[in-house]
Amino acid sequence: MTQVRSLRRRVELGLIVLATIIVASAYGLAGLGATASLPADIMAFLGLVLALLVGAHIAVRRLAPNADGLLLPMAGLLNGIGYVFVARLDPELAAPQTTWMALGVVAFVVTLFVVRRPRDLERYRYTFLLIGIGLLLVPFVPGIGYSNQGATIWARIGPISFQPGEFAKLALTIFFAGYLVERRELLAVSTFRVGPLMLPDPKHLGPLLLAWTGALGIMVFQNELGSSLLLFTVFLVLVWVATERLSYLVLGGLLFAGGAAAAVTQFGHVGRRIEAWLDPWGDPDVTRDSAYQVVQAAYAMAHGGLTGTGIGLGNPGVIPVVTTDMIFAAIGEELGLVGATAVLIAFLLFVGAGLRTAVAAEQPFEKLLATGLSTLIAIQAFIIIGGVIRVLPLTGIALPFVAYGGSSLLANWVVLALLLRISDDVTTRQLRQMEGEAVGVR
Amino acid sequence: MNRQIRRLALGLMLCYVVLFAQLNNVQVFGAERLRDNPDNNREIVANYSRPRGTISTADGVVVARSVEVDTDLLRQREYPEGELFAQVSGFYSFHFGATGVEDSYDEELAGETSDLELRNLSDLFVERDRSGSVVLSIRSDVQQVARDALGEREGSVVALDVETGEVLALWSYPSYDPNLVSAPDLEEAAAARDLYLLDERDPMLGRAYQQRYFPGSTFKIVTSVAGLESGLVTTDSPSYDAVASWTPPLTTRPISNNGDVCGGTLFEILRVSCNSAFAEMGSLTLGPQVLLEGAESVGFNSAPPIDLPVPAVSVFPESFGDALETPGSDTVDPDQPGTIFEDTPSLALSSIGGFDVRASPLHMALITAGIANNGRLPEPHVVREIRDADGALVRTIEPEVWLSGMSPATAATMREAMIGVVESGTGTGARIPGYVVGGKTGTARVTNDPPQSHAWMVAFAGPPGETPQVAVAVVVLAQPGATETGGGRVAAPIARAVLERALQPAPVPEAVDPNAPDGEVPADGTGDDAGAAPQASTAGRRR
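Output (structure tokens, whole complex):
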């Protein structure tokens, strides 16, 4: 048991050191590219990144010693690369992003410390539902909520602005997992058939319709295509995994497509986004800002080509909101196809590790939660990257761990902590079992 | 549930494969198309952000330079002298492209020519500033005199070195401030540009070389050259009748001498700019073919090969209709002098620079330079040298002959005739004590009600007993009045002032600090040395 543990932690530490070297090299190159000299604070920066990641690593050693060894280094790598780009694109954001990164690690440690067993979360599923809905509504509270760039997803308390939706996604994912564990058997019973689809009792379809309505509500009232798509997808995936019934996936997909189609025709802003996606070089009056963004992103990435311009040597500043929504375009320009693919692979490895944990888990809640959290990260990254490179309509959600933004960063570090917590729980139990069996044989 | 999770993993994997495929499409396979999209200005951004050399005058005044700025574009073009050299340097705008020298020497300024890219073998390995600097042949003192002499009258002044073709001054009023048009802020730049474009006087047009006007009586030197070269005109014959006006065949509209009575041989009719005599010379003594060939031999109907973008082509009509009759002959012989053509009245007007004849001020200066330079019209150029970022000479623009427009004998005759114009004819306003000056005035009527004319003066000057050194062309547009004195009264003094200044030695070029190609002020901000404080030093010179 200690062998597995120490191996996983040694791999983790090794990967963290590797990630730190990569991030520090990128930081140094960014400085060289922009000013032809090494940044004066390179050693301080190197130390800081290493300290944060090693701190997180020590917390894992103490609090979740059997957890997967790949998750933390991947998150650290993505966060570090993101930091280098944020600092390179807008030096004024470097200090706040550093703070958020540090707070993210603190939130990570606190989460590991507070949530000792995943089932603690399951117990509070309805509390999380209320928290989730509450957070989604915060932007509409007068005096606190406000709109920015068309999306009503912001809240401001005192000097601090944040996107409550980032935490709402997390709370709702926890709720979905807990709720579905409770109801999965009921939902899995098919009572009637429509064509090739086996459908459950209509009265159990309620939650599906509720989630659908909620997702459409977000899309319409908050002007947030991305978040509604993200939440509804995570919900559908969890219903499908929990009930093992494909009909939910198909039905949900149809529902969402229908709702989206209605929104496109009924609400101008959604329609414009779709037009900008289909033909960004078309009528600029119709497509407006989002078309300009994706067009500039495409030029930036084409400019970068296979190997990129080098960090600090490109000109990603011409892309609007490049530090947040469009940061992947900046990475594509300056690191090229090679660097952009590396980011994709880092996400795949992270999500793969999360789903491996889900498969290994025996407790349904752990399984569903690990699946939900992994899907959350995977789909969020897919939606925004897809938006930037025109696989999907552009939506204003953050690239997990990479984009500038405190709420997103904090929420993602908590997601990471929960995944590690589940992974630790699962492995510990397996190891105990193996130990028991070994003892039994003897 | 594990089956679903594995399928989910596969599904997510597929999503990322789609991303990867599209990424390949954007960054590699479809990248060329995106890069070539006309809407894509990234190339321009990249060029704009790169180091770019200075443009300075022959006497070391910085006309254009790049300054580092804290924007996405990194650098911004600055024109310390404002409008004074705007029509030579042009502008280099992120939004509107480049004009003038900024355009025609773009590769040198950006350091993209092979002689700038590879100065030493070590350049293969070492990154350095490869931008080239352009040294103009324009002299700031001559340019300033041209500007002061023309004042706030619409018009152009061109001064040339007659032998090398180096342009010493190229000024037009109104001009514009290239700083405003080159502003990195689109709205600011567009507002300035719109203002200039709405101005019907078109201040951004380099009218000294990009616009053409009725040359009026200055064209009489071309008619004279055509006559002398063809042998149909000599200094002794023909001698035209002294008349107040002359009516060409096929028309009833007389060509008048503005109330004077004049006539005689070449020197006399040129001296007083006799319309009736030159109209008859061009239309009947020479005929369309001889006049056209004469005009084309001094560059009409082709563009002067100046090193600036889009020079205007001076035009002379290529046809005056069919031959109708040859007086004193039963047959019609178009080559026979005196033959009457369908458009002979137009030919008569063309002979004195009217009808459809148009010439740019630059071109008239070149013809004058050709006469001064024994018949050889030089290739005009505004740039003298290219230097590298360290100030070392890369390339000198060598003088070339554009056209051997006339024989040395014809040129010598014309010089003599034109010296007569300045000594005792219509061009006395251009006389410079201690120098030999020759020239020709012109007054080209543009409207009758009220009468307005372009006042012209072309002239050359040099020390006595030597070949003339400098040629000028001056046009002042739409001046009130229509008498032949317009050119002498209005344009001749400007020509004189510019010639006088250009005959003086050029000011000694200031040492340009090679370490300040981007116009950086030293860290302490005092900037005592000349290279770092060109604004201060020019202000001093301008007094």
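The radius of gyration of chain B is 29 Å.
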